[in-house]
């Protein structure tokens, strides 16, 4: 009997013995319960079907629905934001240089690439890593940038208090890169590759204190370095997301 029931539930063909029994007994599928009837008799032949073969329907389930379009849209939106911030970062770096005076902006001038707490340049082998790992590194760098950009804005507020557009760009950059970082984290979560646990508290306050005590030129160099790292990491993030975006490289 179990074999016949299993066959019924999968190919939709009613066995002859069950059809004959149903005709003889007057059972025609499921009935409403009536007083005095047993549960077996009230339910007719439907009582013989194992319940696990007929799982309850989910009214919200849609076999045609897929998370893929939603993921693609999320990646596309984040990629577009990264592309936009890359342009803004280029403009910020140009604006910053214009307000620092000589030797910044002179042909051939290359300030020292001082180490910055909590942040470094993308590693040479970054592009060879799997895309989720690259995005984890991108997210970590983007999370470190807002407090550093805030430090640069405070230092520039003292050195160039009249450079209102530069100060506004720095403030906007901190807010925008924070939004990009959150969007990258959301993409990682959708890919099932969340970032690796909580990050240490940024050392921005220590950076600001040490730079302010070092003098004007180191403060300018720090700002130049942070703005350059901002550009490098948002452009790197744009490239990494481009690997996942529809129409991107395979």
TrEMBL record:
GO biological process per UniProt: nervous system development; positive regulation of biosynthetic process
Q: What is its main location?
A: secreted
Q: Which domain of life is it from?
A: Eukaryota
For the keyword Secreted, the answer is: yes
The segments labelled Disordered in the record are: 48-67
Molecular function, one GO term = cytokine activity
Q: Does the keyword Secreted apply?
A: yes
UniProtKB keywords: Cytokine, Secreted
Query: A Gene Ontology CC term for this entry?
Result: extracellular space
Q: Spell out the subcellular localization from the entry.
A: Secreted
Q: What does this protein do?
A: Induces cardiac myocyte hypertrophy in vitro. Binds to and activates the ILST/gp130 receptor.
Instruction: Write out the similarity annotation.
Output: Belongs to the IL-6 superfamily.
Instruction: Output this protein's name.
Output: Cardiotrophin-1
- Per the UniProt record, the source organism is Bos taurus (Bovine)
């Amino acid at each position: 009997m179990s074999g016949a029931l299993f066959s019924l539930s999968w190919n939709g063909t009613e066995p002859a013995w069950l059809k004959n029994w149903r005709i003889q007994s007057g059972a025609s599928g499921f009935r409403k319960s009536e007083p005095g009837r047993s549960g077996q008799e009230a339910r007719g032949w439907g009582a013989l079907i194992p319940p696990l073969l007929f799982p309850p329907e989910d009214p919200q389930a849609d076999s045609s629905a897929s998370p893929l379009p939603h993921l693609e849209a999320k990646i596309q939106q984040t990629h577009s934001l990264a592309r936009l911030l890359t342009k803004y970062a280029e403009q910020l770096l140009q604006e910053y240089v214009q307000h620092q005076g000589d030797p910044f902006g002179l042909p051939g001038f290359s300030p020292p690439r001082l180490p910055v707490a909590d942040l470094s340049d993308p590693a040479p082998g970054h592009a060879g890593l799997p895309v989720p790992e690259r995005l984890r590194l991108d997210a970590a760098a983007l999370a470190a940038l807002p407090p550093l950009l805030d430090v640069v804005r405070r230092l520039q507020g003292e050195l160039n208090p009249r450079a209102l557009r530069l100060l506004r760009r720095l403030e906007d950059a901190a807010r925008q890169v924070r939004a990009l970082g959150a969007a990258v984290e959301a993409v990682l979560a959708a890919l099932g590759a969340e970032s690796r646990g909580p990050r240490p508290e940024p050392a921005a306050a220590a950076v600001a204190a040490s730079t302010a005590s070092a003098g004007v030129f180191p403060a300018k160099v720090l700002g130049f370095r942070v703005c350059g790292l901002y550009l490098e990491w948002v452009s790197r993030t744009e490239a990494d997301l481009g690997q996942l975006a529809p129409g991107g490289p395979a």
